[in-house]
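Long-time lurker. I teach an intro course on protein structure, and each term I like to show students one example going from raw sequence to a predicted 3D structure in token notation. This year I'd like something fresh instead of my usual example. Would anyone be willing to generate the tokens for the chain below so I can use it in lecture? Attribution to the forum is fine with me.
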Amino acid sequence: MLRSILAVSFAYLASTTPVIANNERPNIVLILADDLGYSDLASYGSEIETPHIDALADAGVRFTNYHTAASCAPTRSMLLTGVDSHRNGVPNIPEMLPQDQLEHDNYKGVLNRNVATVASILQSSGYHTYMTGKWHLGKEQDNLPYVRGFERTFAMGDSGADNWEKKPYIPIYKDAFWTSDGKQTDLPEDFYSSEFLIDKMIEFIDRNKGDAQPFFAYVPFQAVHIPVQAPQEFIDKYMNTYREGWQILREQRQRRIKDLGIVSQDTEMVSMSTTGDWDSQDEETKKYQSKRMAVYAGMVDAMDHHIGRLIAYLKETGQYDNTIFIFTSDNGSEPSGADRVPSAISNAIMKRSQGYTGEYETLGLKGSMNSMGPSFASASASPLSFYKFYAGEGGMRVPLIISGKGISRDAAWQRSFSYVTDITPTILDLTSVSHPGQFFGGRHIEQMIGKSLVPLLNKMTDRVYGANETVGYELGGNKVLFQGNYKLVYNIGPVGDNQWHLYDIDKDPGETKDLAPSDSKRFQSMLNAYQRYAEANNVIPVPEGYNQYQQLALNGLRTIARENILLFLLTIAVLVPFMLYARSHGKRRQ
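-- Reply from a regular --
Happy to contribute to a lecture. Here you go:
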């Protein structure tokens, strides 16, 4: 059986010289951080200690111009299929889909049956396939990862959950939806998400160790999605790090990222309108905000620590040398939560409705609700503009590291454009497994639009997308067309200005110089190309005045009202401040 599988697999003829140097198929470890900003790793300019991820970066290839969707579920759907999110069923997270969009078949917010996951394809080619972490692509029984190609799973189905115990992080969820091999399950008493997910992955890999079959291990962490939480020893390391505030931090990271050569020395950056003035904050607010960021840094550090445990296990068991690691993030930094100290009233409401508190002393520990806020989120994305949800570079450009067996440091930096749909074809190329074509599992499937990045890893080319090729994108009314070094972008309010802009994101990744007025011919050509993309992929416009936070609240209230009127009233008390905050913030810049 294995011999026949290998024969079929190695019959795959890539369009490039394969990275694999021998006939032993590599293991693949795909690690996905949640809401990690562009400069949140030391290897991408951060002050946060991430030695294990940085070691992978130093031994492999760092991509500096890699883009995802600006929200979690659409990224995950494209990451695992190579298919555009408007064709795979997840053009937005289901929690933020307007009612009129939900009427369309390609707007359900869950992975449809017209795509094959990379896990399914690898599984059918003789790979063990494992997943531990956040799924968020459907909670229906026939849409859980256990039946979408993963042999063993321990998965969380919602947009997020608590990192210390089994409970939801926002009241739109009745419970935290954790499953083990397709069945709802509980969590251990000593649970901390990053530690537990690695424990389970090691358990899965170890069970089949030595049976001659390679494995595909997918670890989508909860870190650093809200609630931002970390063990005390990781928080303590950063308690004095952020006392100068978010503006200084954004500038420090800009300098470091330039010195690393990730962006050019003349790269400029904008000041976000949602970033407060640190010097105008009172001392209590400064103390509170700096600890919020310390918890965030501790959560990133803890994730790296546990990734190090997985790497150590693979080395100890002799599997490391035959493993390729892919590390990335699902989108840019998360801006939710206002830059203020929670009042006694808001703490009481949170504790009553969700069992959380925002008190300073326990910030980041069990029972704590914590987020980074929009001001530190802009520093996390430095030197880019915008952040999660929006189509600015800070929402879409994230780290990507590929390292391990057969990956040469000769191509240590990759500066050409790449996109999230490229990950599945890259994995198939690295494993010498061919895509099944038009049919898989007895059904017709969508074709991949992504491209293998192997030619870049091999230094056979300096770009996989031609200068005239286009990649379209839309999420919640935010729109993009990439072509060569150029990006046509439209960001909705309240942070965006509801206008089209044109940038050269190779020379100007900070999106500071709008080229639309001076290059009207290119602007119009790319605008026409975007319209063709939208029509070809059945992109449904959002309703006029659409606001993602308000839609989240409305959808959540509808669900809760059907089940519990008291919880409905408490949820209003929790979510209304977020809606008012979103409404109060206008354009990013005048």
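Some talking points for your students: The chain has 18 helices and 18 strands. The longest strand covers residues 27-33.
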